[in-house]
């Protein structure tokens, strides 16, 4: 598939629709190498990865489930089930961690945007390799106690968990916004 068609057809695949096989070791290395090819003002590489695969997915899922149950012990069974499978639906979950820090020249915002670009490159690269992917956060991405147990430092932020696997079925595309609702040509509209 050519690059334009690849970009036009990329869409998120919910983790519940992903299954094995996931990327093998060589494909994972390819995914991570592509993920790092993003704009990075100052060459700071203000991001890193935490890989959850195999039994590590169950361990991470238990951390999330335990924290959820401690906060919401009266949750119904459907919600409990959702929380218990956060890391086990897809065969691979990659945590993209923003390590952005104050810098004399490079604004924090630009470093954080670079981490977001890493997530986007991951989902595009997964699509290019024939996998489905979904970039998610969820409540646990903002819970410092959970993040500490998932390998993320107190000085770091989670840009997202990217779930990768083989789609069980074709996923229909969602409606996309109309470009005319999003684009303004400077100097051609009132107030410019």
UniProtKB/TrEMBL annotation:
Record keyword Oxidoreductase present: yes
PANTHER family with a match to the protein in the record: NAD(P)H NITROREDUCTASE YDJA-RELATED
Family annotation (CDD domains): YdjA-like (cd02135)
One matching Pfam family: Nitroreductase
Organism superkingdom: Bacteria
Protein name: Putative NAD(P)H nitroreductase
Domain Nitroreductase: 8-165
SUPFAM superfamilies (UniProt xref): FMN-dependent nitroreductase-like (SSF55469)
Entry keywords, A to Z: Flavoprotein, FMN, NAD, NADP, Oxidoreductase
EC number annotated for this UniProt entry: 1.-.-.-
Lineage: Bacteria, Pseudomonadati, Pseudomonadota, Alphaproteobacteria, Hyphomicrobiales
Entries under InterPro entries matching the protein: NAD(P)H_nitroreductase, Nitroreductase, Nitroreductase-like, YdjA-like
Major enzyme class: oxidoreductase
Names of the cofactor(s): FMN
Similarity annotation: Belongs to the nitroreductase family.
């Amino acid at each position: 598939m050519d690059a334009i068609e690849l970009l036009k057809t990329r869409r998120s695949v919910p983790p519940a629709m992903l299954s094995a096989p996931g990327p093998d070791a060589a494909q994972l290395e390819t995914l991570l190498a592509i993920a790092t090819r993003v704009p990075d003002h100052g060459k700071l590489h203000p991001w890193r990865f935490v890989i959850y695969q195999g039994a590590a997915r169950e361990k991470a899922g238990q951390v999330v489930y335990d924290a959820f149950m401690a906060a919401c012990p009266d949750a119904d069974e459907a919600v409990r089930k959702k929380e218990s499978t956060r890391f086990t639906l897809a065969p691979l979950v990659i945590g993209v961690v923003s390590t952005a820090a104050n810098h004399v020249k490079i604004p924090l915002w630009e470093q954080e945007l670079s981490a977001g670009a890493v997530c986007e490159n991951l989902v595009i690269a997964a699509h290019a390799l024939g996998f489905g992917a979904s970039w998610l956060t969820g409540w646990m991405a903002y819970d410092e106690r959970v993040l500490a147990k998932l390998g993320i430092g107190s000085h770091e932020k989670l840009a997202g968990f990217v779930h990768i696997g083989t789609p069980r079925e074709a996923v229909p595309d969602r409606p996309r916004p109309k470009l005319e609702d999003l684009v303004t040509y400077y100097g051609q509209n009132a107030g410019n």
